[in-house]
Specification:
The protein is an alpha/beta fold. The chain folds into 2 domains: 2-186, Rossmann fold (3-Layer(aba) Sandwich); 201-315, Homeodomain-like (Arc Repressor Mutant, subunit A). Helices cover 45% and strands 15% of the residues. The protein has helices at 14-29, 88-96, 108-114, 130-136, 162-175, 177-186, 212-223, 231-238, 242-253, 257-275, 280-287, 292-303, 307-314; strands at residues 2-7, 36-42, 46-49, 55-60, 68-73, 99-104, 122-123, 141-142, 148-151, 154-157. Strands 3-4-2-1-5-6-10-9 form an 8-stranded mixed β-sheet, sandwiched between helices. Helix 8 (231-238) crosses helix 9.
Length: 315
């Protein structure tokens, strides 16, 4: 059996624990060989109340002996304040030395970072705390727009339900895509999302603008991704200078026109890849990429996988 040790603490998010645990349990029941042996542990052991008030029965970390296949550190508000768990990061670092791989869910990445396990690595966390993670731990290369990130033997995921996506990816890594899809079907998960999937849609991820002209530009980009949305074209339609439009757009949306247009086009392409069998040439044209080569580069830059790989996962 592959031993999975899920590390929790008072105030952890319950779904960060039970979501991945159910994925591993279902994988074992549906034919994973070897299966998974689950251990839920905390620093002291005993009752560990989750943020919802429900209580988990845990074993002490010190009682977990021998080889560990996967260490999974879960998230919660307390994880962002390592001073509240001063001995936990060091305990995690010690345990990591005897694990095949180390993972975190949500803000569990803060505890991995505090333990020094993310130095020089790519990682992600809940969208609301990625900026804090990057500022507090400058040696960590935070990728905020990812469901999960794998860097060697370290895996980190976005918030809460993304822990189930992470667990499915771990099952796939261990036993192949067919078993992972079977687990997703049994758990009635809508889709098995790859790590390159964005945490939010492009339109939802942009702050609401107070300016009607910027809102009009954003709506136009969303309505017709393939249209000419260069700064010059947007400025012409808004009746202002290119420089002024570019400055307003960045100030209101937090991104440049080109970056936002590319993200919307990639998101549109994602939906077309998932929902039909149109060729890459047709999709590139409908989304405004111009050429398949440009489409391929932009898609891989944004998602971490190729259009063909994305279609294969979502077919």
């Amino acid at each position: 059996m592959r031993r999975i040790v899920i590390v929790t603490y008072p105030g952890a998010t319950l779904l960060d624990v039970v979501g991945p645990a159910e994925v591993f349990w279902v994988a074992t029941r549906t034919g994973a060989e070897p299966g998974y042996d689950l251990v839920v542990a905390s620093l002291e052991g005993g009752p560990a109340p989750a943020s919802s008030g429900l209580v988990l029965d845990t074993v002490p970390l010190a009682a977990v002996r021998g080889r560990i296949d996967t260490l999974m550190v879960v998230g919660g508000l307390a994880a962002r304040r390592p001073e509240e768990q001063p001995r936990l990061p060091a305990a995690i670092a010690r345990m990591a030395s005897r694990c095949r791989r180390v993972t975190s869910v949500c803000t569990g990445a803060f505890l991995l970072a505090e333990a020094g396990l993310l130095d020089g690595r790519r990682a992600t966390s809940h969208w609301a705390w990625c900026g804090t993670l990057a500022r507090r731990y400058p040696d960590v290369r935070v990728e905020a727009d990812r469901i999960f990130v794998r860097d060697g033997d370290i895996w980190t995921s976005a918030g809460i339900t993304a822990g189930m996506d992470l667990a499915l990816a771990l099952v796939e890594d261990d036993h192949g895509p067919e078993l992972a899809r079977e687990v997703a079907r049994w758990m009635v998960l809508f889709v098995q999302r790859p790590g390159g999937q964005a945490q939010f849609s492009a339109h939802l991820d942009v702050p609401a603008s107070h300016r009607a002209d910027v809102r009009a530009a954003l709506d136009a980009i969303a309505a017709e991704p393939a249209a000419d949305h260069s700064v010059a074209a947007l400025a012409r339609r808004a009746g202002m200078s290119e420089r002024h439009l570019a400055r307003l757009f960045r100030a209101e949306s937090g991104t440049t026109v080109a970056q936002h247009v590319e993200r919307v086009r990639v998101e549109t392409a994602r939906h077309l890849l998932e929902s039909g069998d149109a060729g890459l040439d047709a999709i590139a044209h409908r989304c405004g990429f111009g050429t398949v080569e440009t489409f391929h580069r932009s898609f891989k830059r944004r998602t971490g996988i190729t259009p063909g790989e994305h279609r294969a996962r979502f077919a």
